[in-house]
Write a structure and sequence with these properties.
Shape of chain B: globular
Strand order of the largest sheet of chain B: 5-12-13-14-11-17
Shape of chain A: globular
Oligomer: heterodimer
Number of strands of chain B: 18
Helix content of chain B: 10-25%
Largest sheet of chain B: 6 strands, antiparallel
Number of helices of chain A: 8
Number of strands of chain A: 0
Mean pLDDT of chain A: 88
Distance between the termini of chain B: 32 Å
Strand content of chain A: under 5%
Number of helices of chain B: 13
Chain lengths: ~230, ~575
C-alpha cells in the first residue's frame, strides 16, 4: 500500500466521524504534452537540507493543553514568501482577510516542521517549491519572488495552477497543489475561515436535532425535482 | 521474575475480568449486580473522561489542526490514549506478505472510548451462515436466543434508531430504542437517489442517547448535537464503559479495578481449573498473581487469543483451551472501502447546522438477500454503506486547481457538496487468516507477541467490487462527479484489521472438536474460564459487532452468575 493511499484512507475514516474534512494529499499533477509556459524553466532542486531532529507529541499527550513540541523551521525569508503567497492564494475580500495576514503561514511552518511521514513529504515539496520559485523568478526577472511586480507574480501563479502542466512543470505544480491545500486547511479551520464558508455548528443544541431549515428543505426539493428523483 | 505477591484487593475476588471495554464492562456490571466480587485487570492506564476529554476545543487549537498522525491515528483530540495502531514496546509481527493492523487502546474503558457507535442487530441469517450458503460454520445459537439480550442491551446502553423492515434486519420491540434524529440534506439526497435504484436507506441504530438516561450513580444526558463523539463524551450521551458500566459496577462495592495490569497468562490450578492470572505492573515491571474462582477473558479478540496461546504448559503445548486447535484460527475483520463524490447540485446550498448526533443518521442496510439466494451475485454474505456528507472544508479532490478569489469562491461553493458512502462487509473465515505466537519476538514485559497472517479471498474482493459499482451508480444518479480513482477491488479494500472488527479466533460451537467455547463463552477445556469478547464469534456478519458482543457478554455473565449460585465453583 502506498503512503498516499494510506493517508487517503485515514482521511476517509476520520471524515466519516468529524465535521471538518481532514487533510488529504491533492492528486498529483498529471503531465501533459503542452509546451512549457516559459522559455527557461528552473530545475527542481536536487537536495534539501535535513530537518533538525524533532519529536512528535507522543501517543498520550495532555489533550486539555495542546502543544506542538517541534521547533518551526522556515527561515525568516521563507516565512515572508509563504505569507505573501498566502495573501495571493486566499486573498482578502469582503468576507474574510487574506490567509497570510491571518497568520496561516505559521500553520504551514508548523506542518512542514512536524516529524511525521506525511508532513515530511510535504516539507520536501514546499521547501523545494520555495527554492524553485525564487530560482524561476530570478531567471525570468532577475529578482526573488518577493521582489518582482504583482503582474509578474500573477504570471507565475497562473503557470503553477495549470490544469495540464508541461513536463518540466509537474513538480512545481504539485508543490503549489500541496501549498494551496495547506492554506485551505489552515485557513478554513480558523473561526474566520468557518465564518467565510458560512459554517454553522460547534454549538450545543439541546433537545431533538432540528434538522434542515425550511430554506434548506426548499432547496433540496428543487434539487430532487431537477434530478428527476421522486421525493420519498 | 515472578514476585508471587498477591494483590490484597484480589484475595477475595470471585471473578477476575481481564479487560474493561465493551465485554469486560458488561461482565463487571452484570456480575457485580448478581452479588459477585470482581477484580478487573486493565492493561492500559486509568482514564477519566470528565478530566481528560477536551470536548469543545476547535481543531485549530490542536497541533496540525488536529490532523491524524502516527501518534494519534484518528486525530489529536481522539479519545484513544497510549496506543493506536502501535503501542510502544508492545509490537506484533506479520507473516511475509501480510498487511494486518491491530488497533489497541491502552486505557480504562478500552476501545469503547473511541468507537463507531453503529449498532445494528444481527439477523437470523447472520447466526446460521453455513446453513444458508455452505461456507464457514453455523453458530450454536440463533437469533431467537440472542434477541432478548439485544432488547435489554439496547435499553441498558441507550440506542436511538428507527424501523428497518427488511429481510434479516430485525426490528426492535417497542420500548427498546430512543427516537432517531432527523436526516441531513445529504442523507435525504442519497436516499432519494438510492431508492430510485431500488436500494433502501434507513435510519441507523446508533449508541448515542436522544433522551436523558437518569441513574443515581452514572446519569447520562441526551446528546446536545455538537462535538465529535470520538473525543469521548463528558455528558455520557455516547455509550462508553467509563461513563456507564464501570462507575455503576464500582458503586456496588464489589468491583476492584487495577489499571496498568498487563495480564501475561492464565494460571492453572488443580483439577483442570483456572486458579487465576499472572500480570505485570506496567509501571514497575513487577509480576503479580491474582486468584479467583473463575476467570473471564475480555481483553479484545486478539489479546484474549494471545493470552490463551501464552498460557500453555507441558500438558497443553498448543496453548490453553485449545484441544480443538482452533485458538487463533478463523480470524476475520470487516471488509472496508470508501467512495466519494462531488455533487454539483449541492453546491452553494443553504447553510444550517448539520452536526446532529455526530455520525451518520441514515445508512444503507444490505438489500440483496433474495438475489443472492437465487445465485445472481458473485459473492456470499452482505455489506452495508455508512453515509457521510456535511458542511466543512471540501476535500482537495473537490476543488479546482485555481488560486486567488476563484479559490475562495470554490471553497464556499463546494463546502457541503461532497458525499461519501463507506462500505462495511462480511469476510468469510479462510485458512490463511489467523494469529499465532511469534516464536522469536517478545514485548517489553517479556511476553511473546502475536504474529498475524491475513488474506482476503475472491469473495471479499467481488463484494467490494459490487459495492464500488453500487456506490458509483448512486453517485451517477445524482449527476455527481466521482472522486475515487478507478482502481480494482484489491487496491481499494482496507487492510486486514483496519476496520477494527477482529473476530473469531476462539469461536463458539456445538462440538468441542471444532470450537473453543460453548454458546456461553465457557471454554470446553477449562470449566471456570469464560471468554466474552469478539474472539468467540463463529462468523463476522457485515454488521458492526459491538451490540452483539454486549448481548453475548450479558448472556454469558448471567450464566456464569447462575453457575456460582448453583455451587459450581464451591
Amino acid at each position: 500500500m502506498t503512503p498516499s493511499r494510506r493517508a487517503t484512507l485515514q482521511w476517509m475514516m476520520s471524515a466519516a466521524m468529524l465535521p471538518l474534512a481532514r487533510w488529504s494529499p491533492p492528486a498529483m499533477a498529471a503531465e501533459s504534452g503542452a509546451a512549457p509556459p516559459f522559455d527557461i524553466v528552473a530545475d527542481w532542486p536536487d537536495t534539501l537540507p535535513e530537518p533538525p531532529p524533532a519529536k512528535g507529541y507522543g501517543r498520550d499527550p495532555d489533550l486539555t493543553k495542546p502543544v506542538a513540541p517541534w521547533p518551526l523551521t522556515l527561515s525568516k525569508a521563507q516565512r515572508t514568501t509563504v505569507d505573501l503567497l498566502g495573501d495571493l492564494i486566499l486573498p482578502a475580500d469582503e468576507r474574510s482577510p487574506g490567509a497570510g495576514t491571518l497568520g496561516v503561514g505559521a500553520f504551514v511552518d508548523e506542518w512542514i516542521s512536524a516529524p511525521y511521514p506525511i508532513q515530511r513529504a510535504d516539507r520536501a515539496q514546499v521547501l523545494g517549491g520555495l527554492i524553485w520559485l525564487d530560482a524561476q523568478s530570478r531567471a525570468m526577472h532577475g529578482a526573488a519572488f518577493d521582489a518582482i511586480t504583482p503582474a509578474q507574480r500573477v504570471e507565475l501563479l497562473d503557470a503553477l495552477t495549470a490544469a495540464a502542466p508541461a513536463a518540466k512543470m509537474t513538480a512545481p505544480v504539485a508543490f503549489m497543489d500541496t501549498l494551496r491545500y495547506l492554506f485551505v486547511l489552515g485557513f478554513y479551520s480558523l473561526p474566520e475561515g468557518k465564518a467565510d464558508m458560512g459554517f454553522i455548528g460547534d454549538q450545543p443544541t439541546p433537545g431533538d436535532y432540528p434538522g434542515p431549515t425550511p430554506e434548506a428543505l426548499a432547496h433540496f426539493a428543487e434539487v430532487v425535482d431537477r434530478l428527476g428523483l421522486r421525493e420519498s | 521474575m515472578t514476585s508471587g505477591a498477591l494483590d490484597p484487593a484480589a484475595a477475595a475476588a470471585d471473578v477476575i475480568i481481564v479487560g474493561s471495554g465493551a465485554a469486560g464492562g458488561m461482565a463487571a456490571y452484570s456480575l457485580t449486580k448478581a452479588g459477585l466480587r470482581c477484580l478487573m485487570l486493565e492493561a492500559g492506564r486509568d482514564y477519566d473522561p470528565q478530566a481528560e476529554v477536551n470536548m469543545f476545543a476547535p481543531e485549530s487549537d490542536a497541533p496540525l489542526r488536529g490532523a491524524a498522525t502516527p501518534d494519534k491515528p484518528f486525530g489529536y483530540f481522539d479519545a484513544t490514549v497510549g496506543g493506536g495502531w502501535q503501542v510502544d514496546g508492545e509490537p506484533y509481527t506479520m507473516q511475509e506478505g501480510t498487511d494486518f493492523r491491530w488497533y489497541r487502546s491502552r486505557m480504562l474503558g478500552g476501545r469503547t472510548n473511541h468507537w463507531g457507535r453503529h449498532v445494528p442487530r444481527w439477523g437470523p441469517y447472520d447466526f446460521k451462515p453455513f446453513s444458508r450458503d455452505g461456507l464457514g460454520v453455523d453458530w450454536p445459537i440463533g437469533y431467537d436466543d440472542v434477541a432478548p439480550f439485544y432488547d435489554r442491551v439496547e435499553r441498558m446502553i441507550g440506542v436511538n434508531g428507527g424501523r428497518i423492515e427488511l429481510e434479516n434486519h430485525p426490528d426492535s420491540p417497542a420500548g427498546c430504542l430512543m427516537p432517531p434524529p432527523k436526516p441531513r440534506v445529504t442523507e435525504m439526497l442519497i436516499k432519494a437517489a438510492a431508492e430510485s435504484l431500488g436500494i433502501p436507506v434507513r435510519p441507523a441504530h446508533t449508541a448515542v442517547l436522544t433522551r436523558d438516561m437518569p441513574d443515581d450513580v452514572a446519569p447520562r444526558s441526551a446528546c446536545f448535537n455538537a462535538t465529535p463523539c470520538t473525543r469521548g463524551c463528558t455528558i455520557g450521551a455516547m455509550f462508553q464503559t467509563t461513563t456507564s458500566f464501570l462507575p455503576m459496577a464500582k458503586a456496588t462495592g464489589r468491583l476492584t479495578i487495577v489499571t496498568d495490569a498487563m495480564v501475561s497468562r492464565v494460571v492453572m490450578g488443580a483439577a483442570g481449573r483456572a486458579a487465576g492470572v499472572e500480570y505485570v505492573d506496567r509501571k514497575t515491571g513487577v509480576r503479580h498473581q491474582a486468584k479467583a474462582r473463575a476467570v473471564v477473558l475480555a481483553a479484545g479478540t486478539c489479546e484474549t487469543t494471545r493470552l490463551l496461546l501464552n498460557s500453555g504448559d507441558g500438558e497443553r503445548p498448543g496453548g490453553l483451551a485449545n484441544s480443538s486447535g482452533q485458538v487463533g484460527r478463523n480470524l476475520t475483520d470487516s471488509t472496508g472501502a470508501s467512495f466519494r463524490a462531488y455533487v454539483p447540485a449541492l453546491a452553494d446550498r443553504p447553510r444550517y447546522n448539520e452536526d446532529g448526533i455526530g455520525g451518520q443518521h441514515m445508512y444503507i442496510p444490505f438489500w440483496l438477500y433474495q438475489q443472492q439466494k437465487r445465485g445472481e451475485l458473485d459473492f456470499a454474505r452482505g455489506y452495508h454503506f455508512e453515509l457521510g456528507g456535511r458542511f466543512g472544508i471540501p476535500p482537495a479532490a473537490a476543488l479546482p486547481r485555481v488560486w486567488g478569489p476563484a479559490l475562495k469562491k470554490a471553497v464556499r461553493s463546494a463546502s457541503g457538496a461532497t458525499i461519501g458512502m463507506t462500505l462495511r462487509g462480511e469476510m468469510i473465515p479462510n485458512k490463511d487468516s489467523y494469529c499465532e505466537i511469534d516464536p522469536a519476538v517478545k514485548d517489553r514485559f517479556g511476553i511473546p507477541v502475536l504474529r498475524f497472517a491475513f488474506r482476503w479471498s475472491q469473495n471479499e474482493l467481488n463484494q467490494v467490487a459490487h459495492g464500488q459499482r453500487t456506490a458509483h451508480a448512486v453517485f451517477k444518479r445524482m449527476n455527481a462527479v466521482i472522486l475515487d480513482p478507478a482502481l480494482p477491488p484489491e487496491k481499494i479494500i482496507t487492510a486486514g484489521g483496519e476496520i477494527i472488527h477482529e473476530l473469531g479466533t476462539a469461536r463458539m460451537g456445538a462440538d468441542p472438536r471444532s470450537s473453543v467455547v460453548d454458546s456461553y463463552g465457557q471454554t470446553w477445556d477449562v470449566g471456570n474460564l469464560v471468554l466474552m469478547d469478539g474472539a468467540i464469534f463463529a462468523s463476522g456478519a457485515h454488521k458492526n459487532p459491538t451490540l452483539t458482543i454486549l448481548a453475548l457478554a450479558l448472556r454469558a455473565s448471567e450464566r456464569l452468575a447462575e453457575r456460582f449460585k448453583s455451587g459450581a465453583f464451591a
